[in-house]
């Protein structure tokens, strides 16, 4: 989510907030010298620069050429390995966290420990994924690519019953596993987890129609919703209107649903 917000330029920096909230000043609260843009907060502020120097990641040239994360990553993806890109994101996230800890909690801004922390953080995550620390029955969860000329949409949704809030995300990949689109939706008046998942699938279908994708696979763990969509009978569920709308789009997209 952090990376996504960086890409969409919606990280709540002062510069970003000042556009929407009149009394907020765009200046950086740490150095008071420049506007706090994403690039300033994560890379160009004096303390962030020290962190990147300590990281030894060779990004200085690229940083001097671009002014947003999209362009920076576009340049770096051919230069850095996947592991280095991963380290870059974790460091950026930690810099953001450290800056906020200074601004909102008055904690000191230390740069010395950030890179070692990020390295151990990644090792811990990798250890968890490989089962080194998770000894309970881990469920094998392997992504399988779609057939050629087919796009695969993987969904997951979440629902808070007490707040009536729902959210869902989708990742769209091609046969090589390349991510074409990643998107998330927030539903402030969600009825239940099923309608949340159904709405997400509908939005994915509409996305496919707009993009001109002729053949898609929709993969979701919402078996109940998938069965409603696959049924030949009209849906009588509380989210039946959404199911019927999804069905109405199938003439435009060859859609294969699976759980
Ligand atoms: Zn600053």
Automatic annotation (TrEMBL):
It comes from the Eukaryota. Residues 1-52 form the Reverse transcriptase zinc-binding domain. Residues 154-250 form the RNase H type-1 domain. One of its GO terms (molecular function) is RNA-DNA hybrid ribonuclease activity. This is RVT_3 domain-containing protein/zf-RVT domain-containing protein. It comes from Cephalotus follicularis. The lineage of its organism: Eukaryota, Viridiplantae, Streptophyta, Embryophyta, Tracheophyta.
């Amino acid at each position: 989510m952090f990376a996504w917000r960086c890409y969409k330029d919606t990280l709540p920096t002062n510069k970003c907030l000042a556009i929407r909230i009149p009394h907020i000043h765009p200046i950086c609260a740490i150095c008071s010298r420049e506007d706090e843009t994403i690039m300033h907060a994560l890379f160009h502020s004096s303390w962030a620069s020290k962190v990147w120097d300590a990281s030894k990641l060779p990004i200085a040239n690229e940083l001097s050429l671009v002014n947003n994360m999209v362009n920076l990553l576009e340049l770096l993806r051919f230069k850095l390995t996947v592991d280095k890109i991963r380290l870059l994101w974790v460091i950026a996230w930690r810099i953001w966290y450290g800056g906020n800890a200074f601004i909102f909690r008055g904690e000191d801004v230390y740069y010395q420990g950030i890179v070692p922390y990020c390295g151990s953080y990644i090792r811990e995550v990798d250890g968890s994924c490989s089962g080194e620390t998770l000894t309970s029955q881990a469920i094998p969860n392997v992504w399988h690519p779609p057939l050629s000329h087919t796009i695969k949409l993987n969904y997951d949704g979440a629902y808070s019953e007490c707040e009536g809030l729902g959210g869902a995300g989708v990742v769209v990949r091609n046969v090589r596993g390349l991510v074409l689109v990643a998107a998330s939706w927030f539903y402030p008046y969600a009825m239940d987890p099923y309608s949340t998942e159904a709405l997400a699938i509908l939005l994915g279908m509409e996305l496919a129609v707009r993009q001109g994708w002729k053949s898609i696979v929709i993969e979701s763990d919402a078996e109940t919703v998938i069965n409603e969509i696959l049924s030949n009978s009209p849906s009588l569920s509380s989210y039946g209107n959404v199911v019927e709308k999804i069905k109405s789009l199938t003439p435009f997209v060859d859609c294969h649903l699976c759980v």
